[in-house]
Amino acid sequence: MNDIIIDKAILHILDTSIDAPVLADKLMSFSPQANEFLTTHIARAMEDGDIKKGGFKKGGSSNVEDTVHMVEPGLATDAVASTDNFDTEGFKSAISNLEPANFIVVSQQLAQNIFDLAVINPGIPAADVLMCHFKYDNGIYFGLLKFNYKQSYIHHFAMVGDEKETGIVQQNATIANENQKLDEFAFIRLDDFTVMLKEKKYEINGAKEFYLSNRILNVTTDLSPKTKVKIVEKAAEKVIKEYYGDDPLKVSQLKTELKTCVDESSIVEIDRITNSVFDGNFSAQQRYKDEVAQKGISGRAFEVTSEIEKTVARKQKITTDTGIEISLPVDYLENQKKIEFIMNEDGTMSILIKAVNIR
Question: Are residues 198 and 314 both part of a single domain?
Fold first, then answer.
């Protein structure tokens, strides 16, 4: 794992049950426990399968309301502008300024923007928002981590006269512990201003949208690796069904090739999967490429995270018309010493599982 060195951080409390956010005026003092907590979350976030990569928009979006507070390079103002007039270069300069005083003001403005939007759109979760400058993978990043509040329970203790009274009370503003994944965060690399973002859609003015990218940061993003892998699989299964019917061997080729791509290089190659699964069938190959492109994958290859590597295409489930389900390791599917698919004269298929011990 790459070392993560946190240069500075600040935490703002965005509890929408009260009238105003609690915006810190000083940087956080770091204990070893706080440092470990934050570095653990950053490291886990960097490998999150739902992370999307992107960059800043050159122009604003025409349907965005006046929710973005602009900052001049190196200093702050109270001016408010829509993202139609979003000062992208000014914003980049502001978050790149490593001076603590500037960092504090920029973080306060971003936190205020999120709070203002959440107050008028209750679907956006209340949260503690932590912003930081940190070093990772030979780069310096501006980080925004949103710790959405969760409900939890703790014990309650009180003295009632001379008697001890205990009970259970609900806590409504608990943040994620170090073993839980965050729902929302953004990392901006300050040398090239590439953005790594995880977000969820929430209801804004009656319609669900990605508010963090569209209304706060003004960035555009690609699909996440997890979404791309699902598109690759679902598109192939759809085309296999169109051209080959319910052929488990074709599906096994898909699963095997996808697993091989990920294991060998952590890169999924569309052409490699196309040629392997639909070898010799040019019509099916083109149909598959069109389907993948239509779903939003424009490139010929994409990288996956270690989180995806651990889960992609390890098993295939086969379900019969009588409701029998068989879950098989992908490595078995094309190994005739382990399993054999036998086509019967009546059009049905027999599955022969070989040389196993029953436990």
Answer: no
Q: Is 11 a member of any domain?
A: yes
Helix (H) or strand (E) holding 194: none
Average pLDDT over residues 153-161: 80
Is 176 within 8 Å of 150 (Cβ atoms)? yes
The rounded distance, in Å, linking the Cα atoms of 323 and 317 is 12
Residues 6 or more apart whose CB falls under 8 angstroms from that of 224 comprise 49, 50, 51, 52, 198
Asked if residues 92 and 56 have their Cβ atoms less than 8 Å apart, the reply is yes
Kindly state whether residue 310 falls inside one of the protein's structural domains: yes
Tell me the pTM: 0.77
CA atoms within 13 A on the CB side of 31: 3
pLDDT at 189 over 60: yes
Average pLDDT over residues 221-249: 90
Does residue 268 share a domain with residue 190?
Answer: no
Based on the fold, state whether residues 190 and 236 are members of the same structural domain. Answer: no
Residue pair 56/218 in contact by the 8 Å Cβ criterion? yes
Q: Would 186 be classed as within a structural domain?
A: yes
C-alpha distances (whole Å) from 250 to each of 255, 279, 327, 331 are: 9, 10, 16, 14
Residue 319 identity: T
Local structure of 26: helix, strand or coil: coil
Question: How wide is the angle at C-alpha 58 spanned by C-alphas 53 and 60, nearest 5°?
Answer: 100
pLDDT tens column, 286-296? 999 999 999 99
What's residue 61's pLDDT? 38
* Pairing verdict, β 207-209 and 202-204: antiparallel
Cα 301 to its chain centre, rounded Å, is 19
